[in-house]
Amino acid sequence: MKVLISAVLISVLLFLGYTQVGGNDESLRVLFIGNSYTSTNDLPSMVSNVLGENGIQLEVDSITPGGETLSEHAVNPTVRSTIATGGFDIVILQDQSETPAVPQLLNTQSMPAAEALGAMAIEGGARVVLFETWGHRNGSSNSGHRSFESMQTALTSGYWSLASAAGGTVAPVGSTWARSLAANTVVLHSPDGSHPSPAGTHLTSLVIARTILGEPLTSFPTNGIPDAEADQLAALLW
Question: Is the model's pTM score more than 0.85?
Answer without folding.
Answer: yes
